Amino acid sequence: MWAKGDYSRLQEAIEFTGDHIKYGAAMAEVITAWPRTMINSLSNPSVNKRAFIGHCAVFYKLGITEDITRAAWKLLTDQQRYDADKIAQQHVDNYVSRNTTVYQAMGAAMLF
Predict the structure, then answer these.
(1) How far apart are CA 92 and CA 12, in angstroms?
(2) Domain ranges, ordered by start, for the chain
């Protein structure tokens, strides 16, 4: 996910991230498919959770790395970014609410 990607797939990434319905569905899938990754990153206060879940979703569904996802993001319209951010935040909020006891148990330990 963090390797240098193949920029010939940029258009594919633009189309995928620009469709908040498909993108959001992939976010829901990756949350379930990668539970350890989600708990490690979505419980970390320094992580941009919307961006993280988006990067994971694109890699999970398409195998496109995060550098290409970031490049695609810059080429979306404001409305496409707004829609994608909104659905990403919904998935993050739902995840956190379903895992509240896990976060409370971790508490300050996550900071050290």
Answers:
(1) 24
(2) 8-111
The DSSP secondary structure of the chain, one letter per residue, reads: --S---GGGHHHHHHHHT-HHHHHHHHHHHHHH-HHHHHHHHT-TTS-HHHHHHHHHHHHHH---HHHHHHHHHTS-HHHHHHHHHHHHHHHHHHHHHTHHHHHHHGGGGG-
What's the rounded Cα separation, in Å, for the pair 21 and 6?
24
Q: Which amino acid is at 92?
A: V
What global pTM score does this model have? 0.84
Report pLDDT digits (tens) over 44-60: 889 999 999 999 999 99
Say what the alpha-carbon torsion angle 55, 59, 60, 62 is, to the nearest 10 degrees.
130
- Largest Cα span, the chain: 44
Residue 76 · residue 12 · CB < 8 Å: no
